[in-house]
């Protein structure tokens, strides 16, 4: 539901951004209205948010008749056609006039996180080393490989690990171990000779 809330907020900002009047909050109120009744069983914006967040619309548990007005500094709701509306959320614009902008930035960050689909662990693992400095002396050669052998792929022992099934379904523990159990680190090169700095350059014409 957290993903649904983030998707819905992003959709509402995109649709209402040209119909948002801080100096006159009631202006454009009919446009900024989420509506469910016997003539419209599903509001298009709510349905779009459900589709994009993979949420079943029926599981929202919404009433058959509902009206929501999304206005600057206030959100109101009414159940049925003859009931009195009530306030869902109220913000004092005088106390924090930057609130709409802060919410917009928060939604943008949430949207980027969902689209990226990467965790901090993955980002740290995939980060490649920076470029090696270029050689300014044409008579120098890079001698690092003369003393170091290629590292052994220590993580290869996990490549053929089987996932056991129970009653036709994968065990939760094996699924968790596949994705979170083994944190892979890049092994350092094996030491086979004198200590050599990886960025050290040796002059062959000494």
What is shown here, in short?
With 206 residues, this protein is α+β, with helices and mostly antiparallel strands. The protein has helices at residues 2-16, 44-53, 99-116, 120-126, 172-181; strands at 33-36, 66-71, 74-79, 86-90, 140-142, 148-149, 165-166, 169-170, 190-191, 201-203.
Lay out the secondary structure.
Blueprint: H1 2-16, E1 33-36, H2 44-53, E2 66-71, E3 74-79, E4 86-90, H3 99-116, H4 120-126, E5 140-142, E6 148-149, E7 165-166, E8 169-170, H5 172-181, E9 190-191, E10 201-203
Antiparallel strand pairs: 1-2, 2-3, 3-4, 5-10, 6-9, 7-8
Helix pairs in contact: 1-2, 1-3
Pfam families: BTG
Protein name: BTG anti-proliferation factor 4
Organism: Dromaius novaehollandiae
Notable characteristics:
about 210 residues, alpha+beta, Actin, Chain A, domain 4, 2 domains, two-stranded antiparallel sheet
Walk me through the structure.
The chain has 206 residues and is an alpha+beta fold. It folds into 2 domains: 2-116, Anti-proliferative protein, N-terminal domain (Actin, Chain A, domain 4), CATH 3.90.640.90; 126-203, no CATH class. The chain contains 5 helices and 10 strands. It is globular, with a radius of gyration of 29 Å. It starts with a helix and ends with a strand.
**Span of the ends, CA to CA:** 69 Å
Radius of gyration: 29 Å
Low-pLDDT regions: 117-137, 139-148, 152-185, 187-192
Mind describing the biggest β-sheet? Answer: 4 strands, antiparallel
Residues in helices, as a percent range: 25-40%
Protein name: BTG anti-proliferation factor 4
Family: Belongs to the BTG family.
InterPro entries: Anti_prolifrtn (IPR002087), BTG (IPR033332), BTG-like_sf (IPR036054)
Domain Anti-proliferative protein: 62-81
């Amino acid at each position: 539901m957290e993903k649904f809330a983030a998707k819905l907020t992003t959709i509402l900002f995109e649709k209402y951004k040209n119909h948002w009047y801080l100096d006159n909050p009631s202006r454009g109120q009919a446009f900024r209205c989420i509506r469910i009744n016997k003539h419209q069983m599903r509001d298009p914006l709510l349905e779009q948010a459900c589709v994009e967040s993979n949420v079943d619309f029926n599981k929202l548990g919404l009433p058959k008749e509902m009206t929501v007005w999304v206005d600057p500094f206030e959100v109101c709701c009414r159940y049925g056609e003859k009931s009195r509306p009530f306030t869902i959320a109220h913000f004092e614009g005088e106390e924090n006039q930057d609130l709409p902008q802060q919410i917009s930035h928060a939604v943008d960050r949430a949207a980027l996180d969902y689209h990226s689909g990467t965790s901090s662990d993955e980002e740290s693992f995939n980060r490649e080393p920076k470029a090696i400095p270029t050689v300014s002396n044409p008579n120098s050669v890079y001698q690092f490989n003369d003393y170091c052998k290629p590292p052994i792929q220590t993580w290869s022992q996990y490549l053929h690990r089987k996932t056991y099934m129970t009653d036709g379904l994968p065990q939760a523990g094996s699924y968790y171990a596949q994705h979170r159990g083994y944190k892979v680190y890049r092994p350092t090169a094996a030491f086979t000779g004198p200590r050599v700095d990886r960025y050290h350059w040796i002059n062959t014409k000494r």
